[in-house]
Amino acid sequence: MSIISTRNTLPGRLRGLRSIEPIYLILLAIVAAIVLSNPIYLDYGPMMQLLRRSSPLIVLAVGQLFVIVSGGFDLSVGSLMTFLILICALLLNSSPELVYPAIALCLVVGLASGAVNGLVVSFWKVPSIIATLGMLLMLRGAGLFLSGGSARGNLPDTFRALGRDSVFGFPVALIVAIVFGTAAWLVLHRTSFGRQLYMVGANPRAARLSGVNVAGIRIAAFMFSGLSAAISAILLSGFSGVSTSAGNGYELQAISAAVLGGAVLLGGRGSVVPVIAGALALHALFTLLNIWGFPKPMRDVVQGLIIICAVAYSARRK
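RE: above sequence
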């Protein structure tokens, strides 16, 4: 008698479907709804424009994933993005030749902000939600103070090129997001640092007893999040311009995307590719709501529901 593999039976196939991350099915459903609601998105140009505008959120969500896996939150990234855009506009308005130093400054400030968050959380034992909330307020106040409370200055085209230019019809911003996501995947899933990050998020005490430098791992995770915010600010400036509210709400969107992608808010679990799909799904959902004519406050309502439902689903599955 031949033995038939359970994989080829209906129950086996159903179990195989259950192993697929739900976010992929959600993303497909939202994209299908967008195309049905507005067939123009079947064209290459509009679809590339949607992907271009989702790139800052993709980068930011991947950076947020590192902090969430370590067992923390980073609420300061949205204000950091706004701060960097305002400062670069003031700096480059009178000296457009300083584009590359300004980009380097963004990266350094992002890393420094993340390092401060990590140090406060690791050595002062301040909960990450409180530490990064304080950093959020500091960056928001500093940006408004230095800019005089309004959008001033100008960002030259060479600075905004990463966010709005294309290479052979492919958005540069999307290329940056793909490269950043690939690098993050390699670090998180193919290095000892990634394994230690999961250990710290799952059980900090056990990780410490195993010889893991818990403080160093957490600081590195926050620095990676700060770096992602700096890159996102550069990409966002390509189509948002200078605004005192450019990065508002992005911190919650990044957390929402990570949770949609299966990251557990208590730490120790999460993967890069589903989080990227979560960021795409969230941006696509907001696009769909705009197509349907929903007002902006509805986006906040939907985002809140997404966080609650995704966390509840994650806890139930765990």
